[in-house]
Design goal:
Keywords: DNA recombination. InterPro entries: DNA_brk_join_enz, Integrase-like_cat_sf, Integrase_catalytic, Tyrosine_recombinase_XerCD. By secondary structure, the chain is mainly alpha-helical. Helix content is 52%, strand content 6%. It has nine helices and three strands. Strands 1-2-3 form a three-stranded antiparallel sheet.
Length: 213
Amino acid sequence: MRYLEQEGEGGGDVRLPSLPGRKEGLPRILSEGEVDRLFQACEGDGPLDLRDRALFGTAYGCGLRAGELCGLRIGDVDFSARVLRAFGKGEKERAIPFLGEVSEKVALYLQKGRPLLLKVPGDFLFLTRSGNPMKREDIWRTLRKRGAKAGIPAARLHPHVLRHSFATHLLRRGMDQRSLQELLGHSSIATTEKYLHFDLELRDVYDKAHPRA
């Protein structure tokens, strides 16, 4: 977990399960089916439903850190250029493709959800029920609430679980590590390579343990 903590991606007090023979734990990820269930748990037309679909969509579709999600402002989303600007560690800016369902979810939230949450003028994108900018603990609380509805144990969730899932799923679908490094905002390719190493090790454990593998 040390490399994740250095990248601002540690799960805080969340302990990760260890693989046999390892001292380090794997970054927790959700399967694609579990991600779908998490979105289904946000079904509804209420402002918080719209917000949570947009929030999870941005986290999973753009691979943002929790702090980057909290810091997003309306002006960071460019619908015409289909680009989202994120500011990572050290205020380093990066541009991330903002396409398809992610763009649609955020547009719907801005149109019908955020105006009902806004209490005082401000431009932070994601707001709490009381109209304040979301903080990391708000994201964590929201994940646990929606995860419980989706049947995903809280022990398998943390503020960066969708970011880790984004990275792992893209690698499995063939994205090269250098492109993924740029999307994630990693300063070193070695950090990005950890996802590949962890994924390969997890598959190896599965192959050895599963009776029908």
